[in-house]
């Protein structure tokens, strides 16, 4: 947990102090970066307003480094633009202060369960998807086009993998948002359009006639059959 308010840190330490959790604390952005670089964590509870690097900068760095650790943003900001930016940078959930402890614990459990299920599903399914010039390696979490590795964010990779794993199946924007980001971000379906556009720029030769990610007009998106 990255939080510079000692009262909140003490409160959450009490509630996470049981056999289910081992809570590590950081009070500045730079301290958080050091600890995240040195250890593997199952979940990061991340405040936005921090001394040094702020929470959005930390989240962006995590995703640029291809870290798949779930991130729960915890902040006093409540504006829609902040929530959208957190989502765009790769946050998995978002809570605004003041918050309820029971809700925070519930969201923590939900993120950990979803992370576990993603790991299990990736282990049990085929390791590689190949279609035309596109290759997706699930274990290494990388994708390439014509043998050139694609520079994808964590959410872009998750979105591409979900679509490519279900060729021909149309997903609505709401379904994609729920599956990739979770129910917390209901109402931000326009973010899916932005991610799809960025994916197409990276993998399609002709944006007017895409080969891989197709639009199901009036419904959503699908991966070609």
Brief descriptors of the model:
three-stranded parallel β-sheet; 225 residues; Arc Repressor Mutant, subunit A; Rossmann fold; 10 strands; alpha+beta; four-stranded antiparallel β-sheet
Question: Mind explaining what this structure looks like?
Answer:
There is one protein chain. The protein is an alpha+beta fold. The chain is built from 8 helices and 10 strands. The protein has helices at about 5-15, 30-40, 55-65, 80-90, 100-125, 155-165, 175-180, 190-205; strands spanning about 45, 70-75, 95, 130, 135, 140-145, 150, 170, 215, 220-225. α6 packs across α8. About 30% of the residues are buried.
Write the layout of secondary structure elements.
Elements: H1 6-16, H2 29-38, E1 44-47, H3 55-64, E2 71-75, H4 80-88, E3 93-96, H5 101-124, E4 128-131, E5 134-137, E6 142-145, E7 148-149, H6 154-164, E8 171-172, H7 173-180, H8 190-203, E9 213-216, E10 220-223
Parallel strand pairs: 1-2, 2-3
Antiparallel strand pairs: 4-5, 5-6, 6-7, 8-10, 9-10
| Strand arrangement across the biggest beta sheet | 4-5-6-7
Share of residues in helices: 40-55%
Residue fraction in strands:
15-25%
Radius of gyration: 18 Å
Element order, helices and strands? Answer: HHEHEHEHEEEEHEHHEE
Arithmetic mean of pLDDT: 85
Q: What's a concise summary of this model?
A:
By secondary structure, the chain is of the alpha+beta class. It has helices spanning 6-16, 29-38, 55-64, 80-88, 101-124, 154-164, 173-180, 190-203, and strands at 44-47, 71-75, 93-96, 128-131, 134-137, 142-145, 148-149, 171-172, 213-216, 220-223. The strands form 3 sheets. Strands 4-5-6-7 form a 4-stranded antiparallel β-sheet, covered by helices on one side. A 3-stranded parallel β-sheet has the order 1-2-3, with helices on both faces.
């Amino acid at each position: 947990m990255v939080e510079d308010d000692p009262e909140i840190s003490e409160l959450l330490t009490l509630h996470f102090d049981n056999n289910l959790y081992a809570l590590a604390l950081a009070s500045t952005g730079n301290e958080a970066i050091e600890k995240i670089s040195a250890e593997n964590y199952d979940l990061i509870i991340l405040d936005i307003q921090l001394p040094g690097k702020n929470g959005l900068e930390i989240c962006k760095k995590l995703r640029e480094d291809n870290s798949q650790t779930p991130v729960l943003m915890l902040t006093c900001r409540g504006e829609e633009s902040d929530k959208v930016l957190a989502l765009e940078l790769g946050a998995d959930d978002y809570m605004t202060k003041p918050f309820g402890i029971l809700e925070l614990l519930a969201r923590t459990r939900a993120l950990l369960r979803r992370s576990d299920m993603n790991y299990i599903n990736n282990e049990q399914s085929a390791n590689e998807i190949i279609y035309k010039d596109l290759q997706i390696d699930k274990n290494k979490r990388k994708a390439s086009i014509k043998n050139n590795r694609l520079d994808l964010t964590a959410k872009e990779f998750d979105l591409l993998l979900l679509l490519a794993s279900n060729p021909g199946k149309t997903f609505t924007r709401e379904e994609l948002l729920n599956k990739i980001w979770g129910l917390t971000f209901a109402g931000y379906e326009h973010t899916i359009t932005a991610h799809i556009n960025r994916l197409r720029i990276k993998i399609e030769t002709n944006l007017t006639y895409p080969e891989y990610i197709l639009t199901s007009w009036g419904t959503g998106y699908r991966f070609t059959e």
